[in-house]
Every structure is written in structure tokens, then in C-alpha cells.
Write a structure and sequence with these properties.
This protein is about 25% helix and about 25% strand. By secondary structure, it is α+β, with helices and mostly antiparallel strands. A hairpin with a 6-residue loop joins strand 12 and strand 13. Helix 9 packs antiparallel against helix 10. Bound molecules: zinc ion (ZN).
């Protein structure tokens, strides 16, 4: 099971059926007095690539901003994972303030039960696990309006007490199935039984007289005796002469030629209610993409997204905000992860198909930005782009080393495509500056940069080989470790935990001297690990008790593994598997990453006035924004004003 599959299985399963309306008090008197602050988040925008493209004239608007205002590399969090980093941006403080330390945490009372760190679902209720006070609460209280589009680490959308805060939730928002995006693929050569391949399901289509029937899976019908996904039936008619397929679904007829995408389609699912014989209708949206008509018909359907015009659960604050957007923009992606990297990793998409789907996501985001700017008066506007992150994960390759899945030529071509994305972002920035450069404080930032992910380190296998994990046949930390002799284990992408007595259910290491000795030994040995070519694998191992402070440090791993550039935790590590070797090549299309040591992957910061601070970091943005509105920096924040030395 990998990260995304895990997320799908643990979180948010039942949220889709309950629309929760946040309570709103009367809108407090506005006190922003026309003051404007515009913040643009480009997830994963990398300083080296930016600097190269600014220097060679490919990003003139960024370059202009750098020269007329301020530019700096931006310190990120340890570890530099997006949910951790954006939560620190939100609180203006280190992860000890918000309690998110990795995509995956564990419950020590159950020894190592893993869970998604961002949100928790119990019954039909999903709760945000990010703790502390987001900086917009201070604005809300002061009567200053703020609107956030697609900010990560903010699902379910955080409520506004005074009605001055609006948001559309981003990364972490589920699809209608309660997963983080499950495509459905129908093909004549599909598997005989439906196959869930992590991020998507494959089905077979049987044609008779050029007609086949299929069923789209929707949300789980949880009140059935045996809960199962609700289904929406459709038929595919094939015109072999015209090389056209017609999809007939719920009285809509969609004609597609190979290589064509449909528009967004509303699809209705019926689910059981406590009232006998009454079925409730839940609407989602998807787009179809015909990959091939003949000889082997292949049809892709996007994940079933929550319908923005009829949301089955709240993805905005206030809940009605999404309908306002939809009235103007129609239907659009509402899931947190929109670029379908899983379809590429699982061989459903070719590189070109991934690129064109990711381009559709970007086009939608640009239309949303237009909406955002047209509906913005004053106060704070925050807008987020995922393209610089999701496309970099799949397309980045900046060396001559062999790419995991592409030829040298293709690796270069797609890295070139990434440069095109940066140039598009430059055009976007140009539009923003045209509107606001002389009217607003403009801040443009990324949460981290990027690096090749060439080699993977299986830390649990290393721990086993070095006798920290015991159990002669142990293959998985979650399953078959001998806890009576195991002293340390790893879970998530960067976390290492001591099997501590009194904390872990079967803990054996005494806090105090014994734990200290073990920690020091682990740091020394891990930082000394070398690859077969003598390269350093781990840049730095950090002690959480030295780098985190605040009221929410309890879930933190004991040690954070900061990988050297080119390395990352192995795919198996994230959920505790030990079947692979200690070090191996990364063999996935997901060929670049940022879950390294924070020093290896700083982000970027551009502003339209000079930055006075020497080494600004993500936690400094929230305090700076509050001061732009004339407010004091709350004591709970670690950051300072970047415009003051
Ligand atoms: Zn990120």
C-alpha cells in the first residue's frame, strides 16, 4: 500500500453524505480600510530553476519583481512535506504549534496504528487535525476580510467566527468516494474482475453488437446490509466506421473520438437512507476521456469530484461560497489532488496524456484566479497553484543520470515542459502585477523546492539489519515485529520513533539515559550511511525535542530523517514494509521529490517591496501579513516581519 492508497483507506470515508453548514455570525464591520495584501502560493516552486529562468530572460515578470522589490530563497519546515509546510505558513510557527509532522502519524497506544495526519473521520464527521490558531482568525476578529483559494492543510474548511473569512479547501479535500482521487478505467482488455490498483480501479468492457455496459462506482452506500459503492450505469456504443464512441449515461449522450475529453458531467448516485424505500440522490461530477475506440476500446473517467453546484459536503467556508463560484465558472475539479499522477504511475496515461490532463487542471485554476481577482475588494487574497509541484514530481529531471522510467531524450523533453510551466506562471504573475503592483502588498512564495529522487532508502530494513528491529521473519512494522526486543521503527516519509516504555503500547526503551544513548547512536550511524558509490544518503538527522516547540508536539516522531539530494525514504518505508533492500533505485514515474533535508530544498519568496530580513522562512509570512494590516504579532507565532531587519 502506498501513501495515496493509505490515505484513501483511512480518512474521510463517510463524509460525503453530510453537508455541514458552519455557523456564521453577522458580518463584523470591515476594518481593512481598503488595504490590500495579495499572496500567491506556487507549491514546490524551486529557486534554482527560477533563478536560471530569470537569468536567461524566460521569466521576465518574476525577474522584474526580484529587481524592483525583493527576492530570497525561503526557509521551509523540517520535514519539507507540503501539509507540514503549509500548516506552518498558516500558524506562523513551527510544527509543534499545529501538530502535523508527516503525511502519516501513528497511534502509540495501539503500538503503530497509522493514520492520516491532516484530518480524522469518525462516523460521518471529519475533523481537521491542524491545531493552533490560523493567522486569518486574527484578521477575522479584527474585521479584515480574507479569502483563500485551494490552500492545503485546510480540509474540512476552517470556520469563520465573525464572517470575514472565506475559503475553498485544497490539498486534503476528498472526492465523492471519500478518497484522494480514484479514477475509473474501462477497457475491452481490462481485468476480468474490477481491480483496485491504488488511485484507480480498472474494469473490463464486453462488447456485443458494438454495445457494452459499464458502471461507475460512487460513494459507499453505508446503510446497506453489506455496505457497497452506489453505482451509476452507462452504455458505450461504438461506431467502428466513424471511430467514435457514444457514452449514454443518465439520459445524456456524449460523443467522443479517440483523444477527446468530454466536458464535466453530473452523475447521480442513489444511496439508502434510514427511511425505508427512500433513496437519497447524491451528485458528483466527472469527465470522460476516450483513449482508443478500436480495436481495443479504452475509456478513462476522472475521479468523481464533489459537484461544486450541488456540493454533497462542505468544501468551502461559508458552505455556499462554492455555489457562488460555480454559478460563474460552471463545473470544475474540487478534489485536493487534481493532476492524476496515479494514472501515469499505473500506466493508464502516457506522459503526453498526463501533461494534457495537468494542463486542463492549470487552465481551470487560471479561470478560478480570474474569478478570485474579479471578486476581491480589499483585505487579504490568497491563491494557490499546484502545477509547480504535481508536474515537477512527474516531469523534473535535471541531470544526465539515467531517469527511472524515461529515455535520456524524453527526460530532457519533459524537464523542458516543466520550464514551460514556470513560464506560464510568469505570465500569470504578470497579470497579477498589472492589477495590483501599485495597489497591494504582493507576496509570492513556495513551500519548498525540488530535487531528483533517484535512490530510495528503506530505513526499516536498515534498522532490522542493524538489530534495532527484531523478529527473524519480520517484513512489516505494522504486522510482524517482535516488539519485546525492538527499540526503534520508522513510519511515514521522514519519521523515526523510539519504542518507548510508557508511550508505545509494547515500549521497551526507558525515557532518560537509555533513550538518550539510543538516539545519539542512531543519529551517528544514520548520518554515516553511504551508498554503493560512497555518496552520503542522509544529510542530517534532527531531534524533534530540539527543533519543535509548542503545545502540540506529542505526535512528533523522535527523529526526523533529512535525506541528501537525490535520496528519499523508499516507497515501502512509508507504511513500515521491510521487503526491499536498504538502498535501491527509485523505479517509479514519480521521479522527483522534496521530502529531503530542509536545507536541500528551500522555497522562493518574491515581494513588491524590499525584504529586510536576512534569511526569511515560511513562518515569517503570517506575522508579516498581520503587520501589513497594522496588527501586532501574536505571541504564539515564531516568525517575524520580513520587511524589518
Ligand atoms: Zn508542497
Amino acid at each position: 500500500m502506498d501513501r495515496r492508497e493509505f490515505l484513501k483507506h483511512t480518512a474521510l470515508a463517510a463524509t460525503v453524505l453530510t453537508a455541514s453548514l458552519s455557523t456564521q455570525t453577522a458580518r463584523a464591520a470591515k476594518r481593512s480600510n481598503g488595504k490590500k495584501v495579495v499572496v500567491i502560493g506556487f507549491d514546490g516552486m524551486d529557486p534554482k530553476l527560477c533563478e536560471e529562468l530569470m537569468d536567461n530572460g524566460s521569466m521576465p515578470n518574476f525577474d522584474k519583481l526580484r529587481k524592483s522589490g525583493g527576492y530570497s530563497r525561503l526557509g521551509t519546515t523540517t520535514p519539507p512535506q507540503s501539509p507540514v509546510a503549509w500548516a506552518s505558513f498558516i500558524n506562523g510557527a513551527n510544527p509543534g504549534s499545529h501538530g502535523i509532522f508527516d503525511f502519516i502519524h501513528r497511534d502509540p497506544k495501539k503500538q503503530v496504528a497509522p493514520y492520516y495526519s491532516g484530518a480524522k473521520t469518525e462516523g460521518s464527521k471529519t475533523t481537521l487535525l491542524r491545531r493552533g490558531t490560523p493567522f486569518w482568525d486574527y484578521l477575522d476578529e479584527a474585521g479584515i476580510s480574507s479569502t483563500f483559494y485551494d490552500l492545503p492543510s485546510n480540509y474540512p474548511p476552517s470556520p469563520s467566527k465573525h464572517g470575514n473569512h472565506k475559503c475553498l479547501s485544497g490539498m486534503g479535500t476528498p472526492d465523492l468516494l471519500g478518497s484522494y482521487g480514484t479514477y475509473q478505467h474501462f477497457a475491452e482488455d481490462g481485468p476480468f474482475r474490477p481491480k483496485d490498483e491504488g488511485g484507480g480501479i480498472r474494469y473490463i468492457l464486453f462488447f456485443e453488437d458494438n454495445m457494452a455496459s459499464g458502471k461507475l462506482s460512487g460513494p459507499t452506500d453505508s446503510l446497506l446490509e453489506k455496505p457497497a459503492p452506489a453505482k451509476a450505469e452507462f452504455k458505450v456504443y461504438l461506431d467502428t466506421k466513424a471511430e467514435t464512441a457514444m457514452i449514454d449515461i443518465q439520459d445524456k449522450k456524449i460523443f467522443l473520438k479517440p483523444g477527446q475529453w468530454s466536458d464535466w458531467q453530473q452523475v447521480t448516485f442513489k444511496v439508502t437512507t434510514p427511511i425505508k424505500f427512500y433513496k437519497k440522490k447524491v451528485t458528483g461530477i466527472c469527465r470522460f476521456y476516450l483513449q482508443e475506440a478500436a480495436p481495443n476500446l479504452r475509456l478513462y473517467a476522472t475521479p468523481i469530484n464533489i459537484d461544486p453546484s450541488k456540493p454533497a459536503s462542505a468544501v468551502t467556508e461559508p458552505a455556499s461560497f462554492i455555489k457562488d463560484i460555480s454559478k460563474e465558472l460552471g463545473l470544475f475539479y474540487t478534489t485536493g489532488f487534481q493532476e492524476d499522477h496515479k494514472a501515469l504511475s499505473n500506466g493508464i496515461f502516457t506522459d503526453e496524456e498526463y501533461v494534457s490532463q495537468a494542463q486542463m487542471v492549470l487552465d481551470e485554476r487560471i479561470r478560478l484566479l480570474d474569478y478570485a481577482m474579479n471578486n476581491y475588494d480589499d483585505g487579504l487574497l490568497y491563491f494557490y497553484f499546484s502545477s509547480t509541484d504535481m508536474q515537477a514530481h512527474m516531469l523534473w529531471w535535471d541531470t544526465d543520470d539515467k531517469h527511472p522510467t524515461r529515455s535520456a531524450e524524453d527526460a530532457k523533453k519533459y524537464h523542458g515542459h516543466l520550464k514551460d510551466i514556470y513560464q506560464k506562471m510568469d505570465t500569470v504573475l504578470g497579470d497579477i502585477l498589472k492589477r495590483y503592483n501599485d495597489k497591494a502588498a504582493v507576496m509570492v512564495l513556495s513551500d519548498h523546492g525540488f530535487a531528483n529522487f533517484k535512490r530510495q532508502f528503506n530505513i526499516n530494513t536498515w534498522l532490522k539489519e542493524n538489530c534495532y528491529i527484531q523478529g527473524s521473519k519480520a517484513k512489516n512494522v505494522l504486522v510482524d515485529v517482535d516488539w519485546s526486543k525492538t527499540t526503534a521503527y520508522a513510519l511515514g516519509i521522514n519519521g523515526l520513533y523510539i519504542n518507548q516504555k510508557g508511550r508505545e503500547k509494547y515500549g521497551i526503551v526507558n525515557p532518560g539515559a537509555q533513550k538518550e544513548e539510543l538516539i545519539n547512536e542512531l543519529i551517528e550511524k544514520l548520518e554515516a550511511v553511504k551508498d554503493t558509490d560512497d555518496s552520503v544518503v542522509i544529510r542530517k538527522v534532527s531531534r524533534s525535542d530540539e527543533i519543535y516547540s509548542g503545545s502540540e508536539t506529542a505526535p512528533a516522531p523522535d527523529l526526523i530523517i533529512g535525506y541528501a539530494k537525490g535520496y528519499r525514504a523508499s516507497w515501502d518505508t512509508c507504511l513500515g514494509q521491510m521487503k526491499s533492500k536498504v538502498l535501491s533505485d527509485n523505479d517509479r514515474a514519480w521521479s522527483a521529490d522534496h521530502c529531503a533535508d530542509a536545507s536541500e530544498v528551500p522555497g522562493v519568496l518574491f515581494t513588491n517591496k524590499p525584504i529586510a530580513m536576512a534569511e526569511p522562512s515560511l513562518v515569517d509570512l503570517a506575522p508579516t501579513i498581520l503587520q501589513e494590516f497594522g496588527m501586532d504579532i501574536p505571541e504564539t507565532m515564531d516568525g517575524k516581519n520580513i520587511f524589518k531587519a
